[in-house]
Write a structure and sequence with these properties.
Length: 298
């Protein structure tokens, strides 16, 4: 069983756990807000105190938000362990902090809220930097670059956005694909899902004509799913992927940036992470330099 199949077969269990965790987080946020309203006259949970680098070190554990269903970047493998490109980065950050990791499974639309509510100290969920998001969270220097891609059945390939007019395009909520198509292709009917696993299952079941997300992901997905092709692999603006922290958490942001420009750059860390996690998927068909960013320099 490959990791894409494992992602689908373990969806029900993770979906239940994710829903339970989300409900608990929502209840906790409501309780915090109620307490805050009574004491201070109405400050929101997004203004609550984040954990600084020193706080995290003293606690001995860092909470890192990651995807559990977006192979090969962040997913749960056949042994129940987190794995992928983002996970390798997360493990190194925790190691250099001298702390353990508590992984927080997220989906696209909860990446910002999880940081704002301090459910996660760091977000490493294949997080694309956008102007809108920069108003809500602080991003580190980039460690990857991407564009959007569109995957469709080989029997009915989508090779141009205009072919999607009047058709159903599957997207994950809270992603750059959702935003781009809503703005640039209003004739396309968007079919939205909370998780990537649900979105891919919808494509496999024929509930949409195509699916759009990062080109890096769809190029990997088709390797394990015969009968589908990436007809568009260079859509929209060139974006970057970065770590993110709660707005104003300067000590934690500085630590991450110093890691990226310091020891990780010296070791060519992200190219090594690519070879470990992505090269087995892409093979010789993708030049790692088209994706990997070292030292935070595009």
């Amino acid at each position: 069983m490959n990791f894409f199949e494992n992602t689908s077969t373990s969806l029900s269990r993770r979906a239940f756990l994710g829903a339970t965790a989300l409900s608990a987080a929502t209840l906790l946020a409501a309780c915090k807000k109620k307490d805050s309203d009574g004491a201070q006259g109405g400050s929101s949970d997004t203004d609550s105190k984040f954990r600084t680098l020193d706080d995290i070190k003293k606690a001995g554990t860092v909470n890192i938000g990651v995807f559990s269903d977006k192979a090969p970047f962040g997913y749960v493998d056949a042994n129940g362990n987190y794995a992928g490109y983002d996970i390798v980065f997360a493990e190194r950050l925790a190691k250099d902090m001298g702390v353990k990791i508590n992984y927080i499974a997220t989906d696209g639309q909860n990446r910002v809220p999880f940081l704002q509510s301090n459910k996660a100290d760091i977000m490493l969920a294949n997080f694309t930097v956008t102007d809108d998001r920069k108003e809500k969270v602080d991003f580190s220097l980039p460690y990857m670059k991407i564009k959007l891609g569109v995957v469709s059945p080989a029997s009915a390939p989508i090779t141009d956005v205009s072919q999607l007019d009047g058709k159903k395009l599957i997207v994950s909520k809270g992603t750059t694909a959702e935003v781009w198509f809503a703005k640039n292709a209003p004739k396309v009917e968007l079919v939205k899902f909370d998780s990537y696993a649900d979105a891919y299952n919808a494509l496999l079941d024929g509930r949409g004509d195509a699916f759009s997300t990062d080109n890096t992901e769809v190029l990997a997905w088709v390797k394990s799913n015969p009968g589908f092709i990436v007809g568009i692999d260079d859509l929209g603006d060139s974006d970057t992927i970065a770590a993110a922290v709660h707005k104003g958490n300067s000590s934690l942001l500085e630590f991450i940036n110093n890691e990226i420009t310091g020891p990780l750059a010296e070791e060519n860390f992200f190219h090594k992470a690519y070879e470990e996690t992505l090269a087995p998927i892409y093979g010789d068909e993708v030049d790692p330099n088209t994706m990997v960013v070292e030292g935070g320099k595009i």
